[in-house]
C-alpha cells in the first residue's frame, strides 16, 4: 500500500498526462494571477490592515476554488476517463460541495494551527509539552485521511455521508497514513521553502519568478499528487459496482 500510494500518482500522471495537462491549464492561469496578487500584497506598505486581511481572505477562497477545480478535473479524468470540464460562471453542484468541504477542512486546520501556536507557551515552560503540538498535528492528519475519501465521492457524484466515510476507512492501513504524512509534509515543506526564499531574495525578478511561476507550479503539482493518492485510496477502500466505462485505478 505504501509503495502504491507513493509511486502510483507518478504512474497515473504519466499514463494520463494529456488529460491532466488540459485539466490544470486554466486553473494554473488563475493561480498565477492569485500569486501575483499575493506578491502585490507582500510588497504593499500603504494598504490598511483590514483591507489586506479582506484581500487575503478573498485570495484564500480563490485558492480553495482552484484546488477543487483541479481535484474534480483530475479525479473524473483519471477515474471516469472524462475530458476536463470547461470553466463555467455557474458551477456544478459537485464543485460547490467540494468547495464547502475543503473550506471546512481549512477551518479545522486553522483552529488546529492556533492550538499548536498556543502550545508554544507551554513548551517554553518544559520540553515535555512538545508532545502536545505533535499530538494535535498527528490527530489532524489522521482525521483528514479518514474524511478525505468523501472528496473523491463528491467528485464522482457518489453520495457519501461522513458516517459512511468513517465506516469506509475503519480498516485504514497504517501504510496509507504514513504515505499521506510523508507526501504532505515533504510537499508543503518544499512549498514553504520556496515562499521563504521568495521573501528573502532581494533580486526583484528572482523573487517575482518564484512567486509567479515556481510556487503556482508546485502548488498545482501538490494538488494533482494529493488527488491521485486519494483516488487510489478510494479505489482500494470503496469497491462499488461500476459500469464498464470506468477505468481501473489500481491496476
Automatic annotation (TrEMBL):
Keywords of the record: Membrane, Transmembrane, Transmembrane helix
Protein name: Uncharacterized protein
Transmembrane segment boundaries: 20-41, 53-72, 98-116, 122-143, 174-198, 210-235
